[in-house]
Amino acid sequence: MGEHHPESPERLAAINDRLIAAGLDMYLSFHDAPLATVEQLSRAHPREHVEEILASVPESGIRHLDPDTAMSPGTMKAALRSAGAGVLATDLVLSGEVENAFCAIRPPGHHAEAAKAMGFCFFNNVAVAARHALEEHGLKRIAVVDFDVHHGNGTEDIFKDDPRVLMVSIFQHPFYPYSGADNPAPNMVNVPIKAGSRGDVFREIVTDIWMPALRNHAPEMIFISAGFDAHYEDDMGSLGLVEADYMWATEQLKKVAAESSGRRIVSMLEGGYSLSSLARSVVAHIKTLADL
């Protein structure tokens, strides 16, 4: 997205380096993300919007869709693979080949609304994956869990009228994108939290609000919008989570998955811009998913 932009390729390099340094790479299976198709993207976005985004890629230089969200000539290939990763992960999990999957992807997706790219996001990766599970695999109930520091306005926009989908989330408020706190749809369990909140507040919300809602919905599969910018080292936000909080939350979600989802989880990277805390948090999350 241009020099000095926080949503940079170095984010994935930091995660890969940390996986290797932690010795986890030998315990995991790796898959290359395919390019998502227009048909797959159109389950979450109007086809004409998808085609408009695809036609917006510059031949050279940088093109801004908004002040935060920019395209280079290679952006669309990355965006299509980000969405395609979730589709492949869903197929792998639902086929029984793997119990769960983490998609180390960029650009992120949870700010992308049905007909609007914004907030570093072009296509809503987790929504594309979730709709694939619902429409292609015939699941009846799924859950989307979002612990990014920013509200997943795009995911809410896409699923607010879909009773098959329960979304539970926390986000710093008031904060970009200044949404989520007022009159959410019945299937949206949004919990805004104030700047400076730490892990104890987050854990109380998960225990008292998220877990009862998730168990009541009994999802057949859980999708995680895994943003790690609520970490106390990440200056993109002002929350105070640490790796232990992400591990604990992942353990709680695994409990729900074991109860109703056949242990099926697909987790997809969203935010996280301090390279060290991002890499450490992702590794902690993956270790917990993999029971390592």
Automatic annotation (TrEMBL):
InterPro entries: HDACs, His_deacetylse_dom, His_deacetylse_dom_sf, Ureohydrolase_dom_sf. Residues 5-289 form the Histone deacetylase domain. Transmembrane segments: none annotated. GO terms for biological process: epigenetic regulation of gene expression. One of its GO terms (molecular function) is histone deacetylase activity. Signal peptide: none annotated. Belongs to the histone deacetylase family. This is Deacetylase. It comes from Zoogloea ramigera.
